Fold this protein.
Amino acid sequence: MPPAGGELVLSLTQPDPTSNRSTGRGRRVPVALLAALAGLLLGVAPPLQAQGFGIYEQGTCVMGRGGAAAATPCLDGSSMFFNPAGLAEVDRITASAGVTGIRPFGSFTSDRTGEETDLVEKTIPVPHGYGAAPLGDRVTAGLGVYAPYGLETEWPADGEEAFDGRFLGYDNSLQTVYVQPTAAVHLTDRLSVGGGPLLALGRVELNQRLDLSSQPVPGTEFTFGQLGVPFHTGFADANLDADWSTGFGANIGLRYEPTERISLGARYLTPVEIDYSGDATFEQVSTGLVLPDNNPLGLPGGTSVDALLQQEGVFDEGGPLADQGVQTSITMPGQLVVGAAVRPLPRLELEADWVYTQWAAFDTVRLEFGQQQTPDDVQVENYDDTHGVHAGLEYSATDRIDVRAGYFWNEPASPDAVVTPLLPEGERTQGTVGIGWEATPRLQFDVAYQFLYQLDRRGRTVDPPEGSAPTEDLNNGLYSFAAHLFAATATVRW
């Protein structure tokens, strides 16, 4: 970006097709903003744990054993997420509350410059809470509140360390909370079923820097880029804030114990469609550029480009960057889990789960804008369904202390063409350890640690040309990503 107060040398040029510079009209800016929103909504930036932007850490006990819990639940109520049928094993009034702190770190290395830009490191809290009570000998009911999908990321947007991908998004968050009343029934001594409806609450915020080179020069048919403004010259900040919106679904499960040493389980979390409605607002950022003498626009030398944009009403009501409403509908993917557990020794349990997530539901996203001059837009994502494997163990070291360990792997949901700062996800492996301590017959504490390692993956920091689908040819660098996760839960029983 040119320094503040710099003179702009304007010369009429044709756009460089190799620069990935947009040559769209002014209305493309809100389209680009919401295109980034679409990628954010179903595409983590960075992904917090599971494929896409799924979060699988909904209970510290289960986290310690690698997320494997479909066949044998932890008795803290977290089976409301992992397998509702497991809630039938809760035989006392139980309440638990906990939080997982996720601290991601990563970087992007540019092919062109070789420079590495780091994510702004922060710890992201993800809470969970469950309450359950037996209703007779065979029925248990409860209520769970958890966050199965979410993300938060921040890249530097200003100064010498400013990230080139800030024009796709630099400070973004997605929050999704599920509220699930649940009932589980022992149909026989060995077979139980469970499930419940769920209310999904979701909100999103996206901040993006806008590129002056892609904007039309007022009163002409040319863009500023064609007149010499460098690619990725920031001139405005765009903020999109979609407040809490709702969707509905269900979570159902089955659990069977063929012998005293073997347990089998399965559960299905249905897809949930959430209709988002929000506001896009725009704030001008100074470029410091001025027009030279004898410029092609016929304006006096020294004319401020920033003042020119204000004079032409770019940010005024009815202008291309006027504040406006926007709507879109996103489907949170369904998820199928099948698991088995074996108890080879009285104090040792081994668990394994297979997780299938229906990310292919994230195929296209339609964006509807509040201004007539801003046409609706359809974004192509083409996500793939994914597989993951979880394995863990739990060993009762004493009557009051359990030790746990686990490992899991999952493949990426996003194809190569849509790896961006909003979702630099890739193939991941993760290891976990945990301890459970029964302080008293009524009070238990669980803690766990997890390390997430992701294979480096090529991606992009630029948009495809207007009207074009993204391709791998746009990938211009390498994303690296990893994370530390810490969790703690307290459980009270009466």
Summary: The first strand starts at residue 94 and ends at 110.
